[in-house]
Amino acid sequence: MAEAGEGKRVKRGQGEGSFIKLADGRVRWRVTVTTPAGERRNLSGTARNMTAAREAVRAGREAAQRDTLPPRERVTVEQLVTAYIEHRAPKLKGRTVENYRALLRRNIAPSLGPLKAQGVTPARLRAFYDGLREAGQGDSVRRQVHNLLNAAYTLGLTDGMVTVNPAARARPVYVERGAARVKAFTPEQAAQFYAAARADRWGWPLAFMLATGLRPGEALGLTWADVTMRGSAEAGTLAAVVSVERTRSVSSGRVYEDTPKTERGRRSLTVTGDAARLLLESRAQTEREAGARLRHNGREYQRTGYVFTTRAGTPYRPDNLRRPMTRLCRAAGVPVLTPHKLRHTWASVQAAAGVPVEVLSAELGHAAASFTRDTYRHVFESERASLTYDPLTPAQPQAAAPSERRRVTVRRARLAQAQAGSAEGEAGEVPPSAAPVKKRARA
Question: Which stretches make up the Core-binding (CB) domain (predicted)?
Fold first, then answer.
């Protein structure tokens, strides 16, 4: 007989456990086992399918026979999460480990930490998530807390520390968003901001991010060893090949420097136009400051090799970009955005110009074009201004689509580059790109 609202019960032989197929395809299992000491224990859980549920029952019975069932009242939530973090630490970035520990210390330990992990119910978890919301924690933090708890309980099931995972049946209620917030500059606003940032030494990293679509940590992690300059500004052929090999980030006040998260994140970009000139100016400024051996805030200048540095020669902290970002937004008369939104702006402006999303995804270092489209592509009002269809007006011949115009432009640019290369011989200068987006460097 099926349980109300839960699904169909699957009959099994005595001692083999019971199974209930849920509406979402998962299977809830339960089995009664007896330990060598004669203690009867009821084990239960939820598995992704029938095969996994039967495996869980088998594992539970074997654990009972070996007398390795976990004591129900021994492991606390804090101990469970700590065990998960330590288990995963060798395979995670330093910043990620520190973020997990901060979530445990600030959000989980004060309320759930002392509770016995086995005794936490889905209802208790939902109340915990509601409490975080009432305390002012946003959707992002509560989502991270839930994911951490779910992962810790999942490992706990595997290791026999607990027999149920309440996080699999309880999720935070995310707050409905109010009025849509600005997520990217319009092309006009981007030009205003770029001009303001370009004229300000502290704005150079921000201007470079807007021109290239780099993440803040990627731009601040660049060293001159990652940059190969080509051509010359005087001849109008200046270009730079920039290799993204590391990223700088901050967690709990500590700066971490790691390789990019994914293999796609390690990439090369060809930088042209004013962004390439900005690199030259940054290097010249660094050499002037190093030569003058300036002292800044009581410290002597340090040669660190980073592209964007403070007046002391040290690399920027990523969390120190917000202040100049806010100041420059106000100076330019544009909405105040975060530094990361410059990356959104780059993607949206390039997409509006007709650059295919697959090209943008590769340039941004994303694993999937769908993520680029869903997260970084923001439609401007100007793109929607004249979409009314008038059946009474005869159709007008359409100009070539932006993407087609771009392909023609790129073909012409390549032809010009080939002709210039044959004429210049050993000069090795690169003609300026005519495409609306930087071409990805070929290995």
Answer: 75-157
